Every structure is written in structure tokens, then in C-alpha cells.
């Protein structure tokens, strides 16, 4: 894989995003249009803006993110192994304290910190608990780092 991540370190390395940021001079960013999804995140209490990726990105997992013009959140880049797996990774962004219709909007998502790798859970309650932990960790990140 000839990407910045190869130069920065293996994907599971928690310091990889910091090294990549130093190499790039800025946080890794993905931009795209919000598409309709299955509304599963909304049903779990964590509505997401879904961005279909044209090709697999050099990152995967759960991240603390900032979205230009919309604020802070937590995002998943992955294949959704627990519910309705997809062949090409999908970017799903949960924005904190926002619940507006973003369908068709163009979002620019900056990845600030990797929280963990994507995991498969035994069911929706376990997935919901993991998302709640991820959101709590991301909020704590912003309390410390602004």
C-alpha cells in the first residue's frame, strides 16, 4: 500500500495519525457528499452523516473528527461488520449536538485522533454501547484540546 499511512506506521499503531499529520502538515481529511443510509445510527441514538467512498481510504477504524462548518464528532471508516457489511469502506460521521438534514451536503472531515480499530459485535446493544463509549472519548478529547 503506497500511502501516507505506510510511511506513518501500521494502521493499529495509535501514534500513526500523529505521525501522518506531521508528514502531511495537517490532519488527514476526507471530503464527500452525504448520502442516505439505513438510518440505523439514528435508531441507536447516534444519527450519522454517511459518505460513500469511491475507493478504500488509507485509514480504517473509529476516530475523533472535526467537520468544517459543522463542528466536532466521532466517525467510523470501515465496512460495518456488525450490521449490513459493505464491500468498500463507508465514512459515517456522528456530529455532536446537531440533528439536521445533511443529505446532499458536501462535508470536509478532518481526522484528529484514532480511538480504536473497527470491531464486530454480537448485536445492536453491544454496538450501541461501543458507540456511546467512542462518543464519550471524543467529547473528552475536545474538552482537553479544544
Plain-language structure description:
The structure is a single chain. With about 150 residues, this protein is α+β, with helices and mostly antiparallel strands. The chain has 4 helices and 6 strands. It has one domain: Elongation Factor Tu (Ef-tu), domain 3 (Beta Barrel). The longest helix has 22 residues. The protein is globular.
Topology, pairings included?
Layout: H1 4-8, H2 16-24, E1 28-35, H3 40-43, E2 49-52, E3 61-67, E4 71-78, E5 90-95, E6 106-116, H4 124-145
Quick description:
The chain is built from four helices and six strands.
Percent of residues in helices comes to 25-40%
Provide the succession of SSEs.
HHEHEEEEEH
Reported by name, the CATH topology is Elongation Factor Tu (Ef-tu), domain 3
What is the class in the CATH system?
Mainly Beta
Instruction: Count the E strands.
Output: 6
User: What is the CA–CA distance across the termini?
Assistant: 33 Å
Structural class: alpha+beta
CATH architecture: Beta Barrel
Please state roughly what percent of the residues sit in beta strands, choosing from under 5%, 5-15%, 15-25%, 25-35%, 35-45% or over 45%.
25-35%
Report the sheet with the most strands, covering strand number, pairing sense and barrel closure. 6 strands, antiparallel, barrel
- Superfamily (CATH H level) name: Riboflavin kinase-like
Output the radius of gyration. Answer: 14 Å
Which stretches of 5+ consecutive residues score pLDDT under 50?
A: 1-12
How many helical stretches?
4
The tally of domains stands at: 1
Spatial order of strands in the largest sheet: 1-2-5-4-3-6
The 3D shape can be described as: globular
Average pLDDT, all residues? 87
Amino acid at each position: 500500500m503506497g500511502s501516507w499511512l505506510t510511511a506513518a506506521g501500521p494502521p493499529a499503531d495509535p501514534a500513526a495519525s500523529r505521525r501522518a499529520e506531521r508528514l502531511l502538515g495537517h490532519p488527514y481529511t476526507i471530503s464527500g457528499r452525504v448520502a442516505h443510509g439505513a438510518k440505523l445510527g439514528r435508531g441507536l441514538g447516534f444519527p450519522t452523516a454517511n459518505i460513500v467512498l469511491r475507493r478504500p481510504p488509507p485509514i480504517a477504524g473509529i476516530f475523533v473528527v472535526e467537520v468544517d462548518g459543522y463542528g466536532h464528532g466521532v466517525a467510523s471508516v470501515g465496512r460495518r461488520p456488525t450490521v449490513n457489511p459493505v464491500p468498500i469502506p463507508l465514512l459515517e460521521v456522528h456530529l455532536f449536538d446537531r440533528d439536521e438534514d445533511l443529505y446532499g451536503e458536501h462535508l470536509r472531515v478532518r481526522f484528529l485522533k484514532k480511538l480504536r480499530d473497527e470491531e464486530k459485535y454480537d448485536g445492536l446493544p453491544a454496538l450501541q454501547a461501543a458507540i456511546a463509549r467512542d462518543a464519550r472519548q471524543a467529547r473528552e478529547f475536545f474538552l482537553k484540546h479544544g
